[in-house]
């Protein structure tokens, strides 16, 4: 099993970060969170990290004139902390090819919809507006598109009569907290094999190089 150093990128409360920390603490995930980076100085995810003694850094987009400069600053922090796997846990920015190429095949994202349906920043609003009866969440590898990378795991929840964005989001978030740590565990165990758009999950004990 590989020893991975995670770099977790967040924009808000960091509840998915908390689920990853819990999975590391209970031994489900054998890895270290090397750094947590937020694109907002007041993101509560930074406070969560500091309370656990994890390096926590704000790299604020508006401090950089261009996106490339912002992403280079993110990469500098990831490199400085020896990060081997980038985890986007509610990071509300689309990453350019500059960033994606630096960690090709080593960036995981959680999205609050059943991709390829409802990509982008307003998944719950879009799902409700479309009238779907089932929604959910997706963990996927990040490529150069918007929420378009190969899918690793998905979980579904019913859309109930009278649901709002908030009530649907809360139901989906419970599943996010379950499958995101599981996907990270599978990656660390070398059990994810990507063949084009297909991600095959190898049986336990058969993991190897990706």
UniProtKB/TrEMBL annotation:
EC number in record: 2.1.2.2
InterPro entries hit by this protein: Formyl_transf_N, Formyl_transf_N_sf, GART
Protein known as: Phosphoribosylglycinamide formyltransferase
The entry's keywords: Purine biosynthesis, Transferase
Recorded family membership: Belongs to the GART family.
Species assigned in the record: Selenomonas noxia F0398
Binding site for N(1)-(5-phospho-beta-D-ribosyl)glycinamide: 14-16
Site note Raises pKa of active site His, residues: 147
Catalytic activity reported: N(1)-(5-phospho-beta-D-ribosyl)glycinamide + (6R)-10-formyltetrahydrofolate = N(2)-formyl-N(1)-(5-phospho-beta-D-ribosyl)glycinamide + (6S)-5,6,7,8-tetrahydrofolate + H(+)
Keyword DNA-binding (UniProt): no
Domain Formyl transferase N-terminal: 5-184
Pathway recorded for this protein: Purine metabolism; IMP biosynthesis via de novo pathway; N(2)-formyl-N(1)-(5-phospho-D-ribosyl)glycinamide from N(1)-(5-phospho-D-ribosyl)glycinamide (10-formyl THF route): step 1/1
Superkingdom of the organism of origin: Bacteria
Known role: Catalyzes the transfer of a formyl group from 10-formyltetrahydrofolate to 5-phospho-ribosyl-glycinamide (GAR), producing 5-phospho-ribosyl-N-formylglycinamide (FGAR) and tetrahydrofolate.
Binding site residues for (6R)-10-formyltetrahydrofolate: 67, 92-95, 109
Active-site residues, record numbering mapped to chain: 111 (proton donor)
């Amino acid at each position: 099993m590989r020893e991975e150093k995670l770099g977790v990128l967040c924009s808000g409360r960091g509840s998915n970060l908390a689920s990853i920390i819990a999975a590391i603490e209970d031994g489900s995930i054998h890895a270290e969170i090397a750094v947590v980076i937020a694109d907002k100085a007041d993101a509560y995810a930074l406070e969560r990290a500091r309370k656990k003694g994890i390096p926590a850094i704000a790299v604020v987009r508006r401090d950089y004139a261009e996106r490339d400069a912002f992403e280079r600053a993110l990469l500098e922090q990831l490199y400085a902390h020896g990060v081997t796997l980038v985890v986007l846990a509610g990071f509300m920015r689309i990453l350019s090819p500059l960033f994606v190429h630096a960690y090709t095949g080593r960036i995981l994202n959680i999205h609050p919809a059943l991709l390829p349906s409802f990509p982008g920043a307003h998944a719950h609003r879009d799902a409700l507006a479309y009238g779907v009866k089932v929604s959910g969440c997706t963990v996927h590898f990040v490529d150069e598109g918007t929420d378009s990378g190969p899918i690793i795991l998905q979980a579904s929840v019913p859309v109930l009569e009278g649901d709002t964005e908030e009530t649907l989001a809360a139901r989906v978030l419970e599943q996010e907290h379950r499958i995101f740590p599981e996907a990270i565990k599978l990656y660390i165990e070398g059990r994810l094999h990507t063949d084009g758009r297909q991600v095959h999950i190898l049986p336990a004990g058969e993991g190897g190089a990706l």
